Amino acid sequence: MDISGKTAIVTGSAVGVGRATALELAKRGANVVVNYSRSEAEARETLAAVERLGAKALLVRADVSRDDEVRAMVQRTLAAFGALHVLVNNAATTVFVNFADLDGLKEEDWDRILAVNLKGPFFCSRAAAGPMKAAGEGAIVNIASIAGIRAIGSSIAYAASKAGLINMTVALARVLAPEVRVNAVAPGFIDTRWLREGLGPLYDRVKEATAQQTPLGRVSTPDDIARVVLSLIEDADFVTGQTITVDGGNAIR
Q1: Is 123 inside any structural domain?
Q2: 199 vs 64, which has greater pLDDT?
Q3: Residue 95 located in a structural domain
Q4: Which among 198, 208, 200, 230 is positioned nearest to 17, based on CA atoms?
Q5: What's the CATH code of the domain at 75?
Q6: Which of 27, 47, 225, 229 is most solvent-facing, going by the fewest CB within 10 Å?
Q7: SS3 240
Q8: Strand stretches in the chain, DSSP E
């Protein structure tokens, strides 16, 4: 897909992978909807960065776990730009609970993680499907995780939510074809504020250990993930229903 002049929504694009993806889209001439739920200051910084690259941008606060807010975001996008062609389901949440600590994972943790990480991408994809089909083409990329493949990561609930997202990617690819392609990216360890805050004092040690056991010798950055996302949007017109692992080869060690 040639995305110059096309319109993209990137959920959770205030920081990290979402921000990097929004900037990559802007560099290629796309109109970018910057979405956030809480990080307004960072989202405004992303908006300004997108506009400095010469792209048109729209800032929308919406909690992706709320269907009404998602539908309103899509309607605002259509009002501003007239069409929707790309959706990157990046917004996510987690809690850091050791897998063995079954009692440490509360019901409210499950509810919020599944609501944002699994229901959210469904709500967004459902709201975007009609406009994409009307436009004659569309690409949805879900940001999953190696946690959803290997049952590792911040918590069992997070891993389960990402496994569900990978499964849902296949289901959506099947039902939204041929106009809309749906794929997923499954990153490994990403050098982000989210992991730094979640791991706290363990962060540097875990990062170094992960880099040492990764064939390519480092952990990923948000830009690494964003470039793969853009490749699925721009250069993979005959690819749908797939999950691409982006972990420097760590999973094959």
Answers
A1: yes
A2: 64
A3: yes
A4: 230
A5: 3.40.50.720
A6: 27
A7: coil
A8: 7-10, 31-36, 57-61, 86-89, 138-143, 180-187, 243-246
How does pLDDT run across 146-156, given as a tens digit for each residue?
999 999 999 99
Residues 176-226 have pLDDT tens digits of: 999 999 999 999 999 888 788 888 888 899 899 999 999 999 999 999 999
> Of the listed 36, 81, 158, 189, which one is catalytic?
158
Number of domains in the chain: 1
- The question of whether 36 is a catalytic residue gets the answer no
Q: For residues 115 and 37, is the Cβ–Cβ distance under 8 A?
A: no
Question: Does residue 2 lie in a domain region?
Answer: no
Determine contact, residues 28/5, Cβ cutoff 8 Å. Answer: no
- Please list, in sequence order, all residues whose beta carbon lies within 8 angstroms of the beta carbon of residue 237, skipping any fewer than 6 positions away: 1, 181
Q: What is the pTM of this model?
A: 0.96
Segments forming the whole domain that contains residue 230 = 7-193+221-242
- For 240, the token pair is 């749908």
- C-alpha 32/C-alpha 85 separation (Å) is 11
* Domain-embedded: residue 201: no
> What is the spatial distance between Cα 245 and Cα 147, in angstroms, rounded to a whole number?
11
Tokens representing 192? 């982000």
On the question of a cis peptide bond just before residue 131, with omega within 30 degrees of 0, the verdict is no
- 149-175: per-residue pLDDT in tens? 999 999 999 999 999 999 999 999 999
